[in-house]
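[Meeting: bench + compute handoff]

Bench side (C.D.) handed over the final construct sequence. Compute side (W.E.) agreed to return the predicted structure before the next meeting so the bench team could plan truncations. Sequence as handed over:
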Amino acid sequence: MPLLECIGLTKRWGSVTTVDNVDITVNPGEVVALIGPNGAGKSTIFNLIAGTIRKSGGTVSFLGERVERLAAVDLARLGMSRTYQITSLFPQLTALENVRLALQSCTRSRLMPVPSKALRAQTTEEAMEWLDRVRLKAHANTIAATLSHGDQRLLEIATALAMKPKLVLLDEPTQGMSVDETRGTVELLKSLLKGTNMAVLLVEHDLEVVFGLAQRVVVVEQGRKIADGLPEAVKADPAVQRAYLGVGHAEN
């Protein structure tokens, strides 16, 4: 059974259809990349899945249950976390505090304005472990807003993964990174996912990232799905080459 199953996802803004009857599945432990040219509808699809915008049509099932009417916060509690195209952190809190809040949100004490000493100690220890795993332990007490752009992206990944989701939606995790930072992030994500059953749905423009991480690639163009398959098969698809990879008739 798929972990995530989207059938007929559709979004209309008045007379304009930005997502048109798109099906997407993600299986447990699978890394799926969603790609397409600018304006293809990728971010809208992400927001439809994550419950941040209302669907015009279609269904979303997560863990075998229909969830398209649930808000983003409810999906997070079920085990779906995400990052954003524009970094979304608490900028005036430290790196440690950002991860600790993510961890606390997964506990029964998430609504407590002041956590107990025991919970604070537990989440601090776990947060430091996550910062170490994303190579930010030395910046634990650094205010998030003062971190470099690349380190802010890594911190956001840490906060998403620290919640131990069953599915994480990564929205352009390497956007704005240098070539070296991007390659380092790909290797880091591989190591973080290794040995887990965590699934990933990834939106990314950098094809080196896509083909370095994804086990399956879904391609959309003008709101419609035009390909879905193994990376090498998608690379060779003439429709994908024309629409996205800039070869064949893409220049016309």
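W.E. noted at the follow-up: The chain has two domains: 1-79+165-252, 90-163. C.D. will use this when planning the next construct.
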